[in-house]
Design goal:
elongated
Length: about 70
Amino acid sequence: MGRIDVVLTDELERKFREEVVKRLGFKKGNISIAIEEAIKDWLNKKSGKMVIAGKKAWLTRRENAES
């Protein structure tokens, strides 16, 4: 299991903790669960953009080859 130490502003940490408690409750491990979900969402969002960029590059090359 990996470990990442992160420094957040006090305001962001407070808001995140409040939201975790609202959604998941005040139980040990819920912050880790929420952070894992956030990282997975971020990775999916970024990889989706990479797929779109790859498709655009492919279409551009194909259009240039046809010209």
